[in-house]
Amino acid sequence: MIHTARKGAHGALVGRALATYKGRVTADEHEPSNVAEMIDVNRNNWDARTPIHVASEFYGLNEARDSGHWFADFEWPDLGDLTGRDVLHLQCHLGTETLAFAERGATTTGLDFSGAAVAEARRIARDAGREVTYVEADVHDAVDALDGRRFDVVYTGKGSLWYLPDLARWARTVAGLLRPGGFLYLVEFHPLLQSLGAVPEPGEQRLRLRQDYLGGRGPLRVEVDHTYTDGPPLDQATTCYEWRHGLGDIVTALLGVGLSIEVLRETELLPWPRFAGMVPADGGWWRLPDHDPKIPLMFALRARATP
User: What pLDDT band is residue 16 in, cutting at 50, 70 and 90?
Assistant: First the structure.
């Protein structure tokens, strides 16, 4: 769980960083002509973010921090005992969460499309003395990139789904990675949170809807001067593309490939104080104060393949 490292001064530091992470949704007559080019733009953006994240206090890689602090209290009971199980973490970035599966006795693999991030993830695992296999590949190519391997658990989320242009294709990929009886565990920021935007405007006291909750209007082109962590601004590759997916779209895509939904939970918790005025919650996470409406900020879903 996230403990004191995410409270006090650190929470304020992350809040200040997020205040710069607004992004600007823009129209551009020079848009890439196809989705593959947009994914390349996103890959360049994440390559540029990686050295900032590695040096950030947000990730705290220079601290002796338990990798389990990236997980909410409900995740480990939902995941169950991982000892001896084959676990795949899709869109794993630096592997800070991926390490936790290895620490709990799983045979662990991480996959990400950013070569810079994969190189750092390998170094971080090596420095931690953990055996983790990392593969550089776009998530849509995961079945081929992993040579047809199947897994007991596929884990993903916390900022992954809105980089996926085609949920049906993603769901087919997940199904192709699961052994009979294996399951997907998805923990993701709620579509409602995404529709609220990154942070309120200066001086604004209440949250309001800024962006689509539902998909269907194509990708958003976003210009991001800073990443979501503390640290310097991005000096290159500041453009990224995002796709909106409603909760119903996500569930329907997974049902469409034959997975059975076993758990679907919504929670008011976030792992960092995204909005001004958020208060500490149990486990070192954060929630909106009592005088604000109680709304879902994240969700978790477990979907199982037919045995």
Answer: very low
